Amino acid sequence: MLVVVVVVVLALRGASGAVAETGIGVNWGTVSFRKLKPTTVVDLLKDNKIGKVKLFEAEEDVLKALMGSGIEIMLGIPNEHLSLLSSSPSAADMWIQKNVSAYMSKHGALIRYIAVGNEPFLTSYNGEFQNFVIPAIQNLQESLVKANLAGSVKLVVPCNADAYESTVPSQGAFRPELTQIMTQLVQFLNSNGAPFIVNIYPFLSLYDNGEFPQDYAFFEGTTHPVIDGPNVYTNAFDGNYDTLVAALSKLGYGQMPIVIGEIGWPSDGAMGANITAARVFNQGLVNHVLSNKGTPLRLNSPPMDIYIFSLLDEGAKSILPGSFERHWGIFSFDGKAKYPLNLGLGNKELKNAKNVEYLPSRWCVASPSSDMNNVANHVRMACSVADCTTLNYGGSCNGIGEKGNISYAFNSYYQLQMQDARSCNFDGFGMVTSRDPSVGACRFILGVKDKDSDSSASQITTTYKYHLCILLTLQYEDTTVCFNVSELSHDSQDPQVLTFQHVFRCQCHGTAPKPFLSF
Ligand SMILES: *[C@@H]1O[C@H](CO)[C@@H](O)[C@H](O)[C@H]1NC(C)=O
Ligand SMILES: *[C@@H]1O[C@H](CO)[C@@H](O)[C@H](O)[C@H]1NC(C)=O
Ligand SMILES: *[C@@H]1O[C@H](CO)[C@@H](O)[C@H](O)[C@H]1NC(C)=O
Ligand SMILES: *[C@@H]1O[C@H](CO)[C@@H](O)[C@H](O)[C@H]1NC(C)=O
Hints:
InterPro entries: GH, Glyco_hydro_17, Glyco_hydro_17_plant, X8
Radius of gyration: 24 Å
Largest sheet: 9 strands, parallel
Signal peptide: 1-17
Structural class: alpha/beta
Number of helices: 13
Distance between the termini: 64 Å
Membrane topology: Lipid-anchor; GPI-anchor
Shape: globular
Enzyme class: hydrolase
Oligomer: single chain
CATH topology of the largest domain: TIM Barrel
Catalytic activity: Hydrolysis of (1->3)-beta-D-glucosidic linkages in (1->3)-beta-D-glucans
CATH superfamily of the largest domain: Glycosidases
Bound molecules: 2-acetamido-2-deoxy-beta-D-glucopyranose
């Protein structure tokens, strides 16, 4: 077995001449309330010499900002679009025209890959998307040919590591119900010279499974190695990677290039999600892949590229998976490096985003005199709209006391409302202060001005005023709280975008109207 592997590696090296170094990229997600301007983010990427970025969808302002930057792009298509793209060649043509061709002029965006779906085979989707993938790929490939882009843009499918399974890496195989689709997929990828994309999350293995040995998640040796015949695995990444290698081998494509589409560690919001762990994991990962050691089944042949998840924290993400979900960034939402990290790209440490325009140094806190018994509903409302996940068990603000909790909630909401004075009222329980209320590692955020607060952008935003009482079911608990949504901003370019401007608690009478249906 070992001998065979060595021969294969030699043959590969002989063919390619030199071993290429793993490319280090990042995932740039934009599910945030207040986003940095895309141009600020592109400068952040450039300052950190990050030359590869993965996007989850084709957002115009993001792609425009990337034009001429020289940064290579893997552009995602959300799963929800796969059904249409699989059934309609003209929809695929349109997608390529509007979302790819339009940006690929001479000094345009370097779109290298299109990620067709995002983990479309995820077990929890129960097969909802899986039959759309191959037909969508076929349509999109035709469209690329028509657009003369088939030579420069490759279609790929980022899979979650749950697409394959095994007790030991060498026995890896794709899930039985995926065998046929995976066979078609890898044949397509191979004929196109495209890599297999996989997302690997040792953090989630640790989070979901109390038995998972913590040190096996990192890259610093373990007291629980996995012994697989002659091969010894000391970290979850290698074990997982080789399980995929074995699964690909079973289909006859054991040498298919592999790209890690997402990998990272959150820094807040759960036990085991903290700054130290995130730094140790990400630095260990980068050092590991750049060492070119490879894995037992692919000696000296690390992944082609890895895309760290993620670039920035995304404060508006669903916390269904856990509170950590909003804290994957190597930078916080405002582009500040959370910890020193050497990406092996030339800088010894991360550089912060430049020219970030913060709101004035003002925070909203609980006023000292107020009776704290009556604020629970205010806190619940604030945290249902803004992000309070750092307050949770294991979070960086978990130990700041009851009053601290209230202030944190008030402030998160106030910053989200662009420091609108009315949003710090809370029936008189809130007050604005110019002293930073941050305590220790618990940082009270200060909002940033984003594109929505530019005067140029105001032309496209129409504000409709509503005086409504709506029912909102909170994500945290089954409690129903009423809010008075007195203003909803309605982006006239994209009717699906609604922004809450001022949300106040109110009395609900009778059945609440449903404002979302009125557009
Ligand atoms: C381009 O991508 C966006 C974002 O995924 C999508 O909403 C839009 O429908 C796409 N455009 C076309 C013409 O399909
Ligand atoms: C950070 O997380 C790691 C493991 O993920 C854990 O061992 C460590 O105790 C945590 N540190 C703190 C300060 O909570
Ligand atoms: C602060 O809020 C968090 C999250 O809801 C909770 O776990 C913690 O117990 C609260 N602290 C106090 C002192 O009420
Ligand atoms: C909602 O708030 C607006 C503005 O403060 C007020 O005029 C309106 O009466 C309120 N509606 C309800 C139902 O409380």
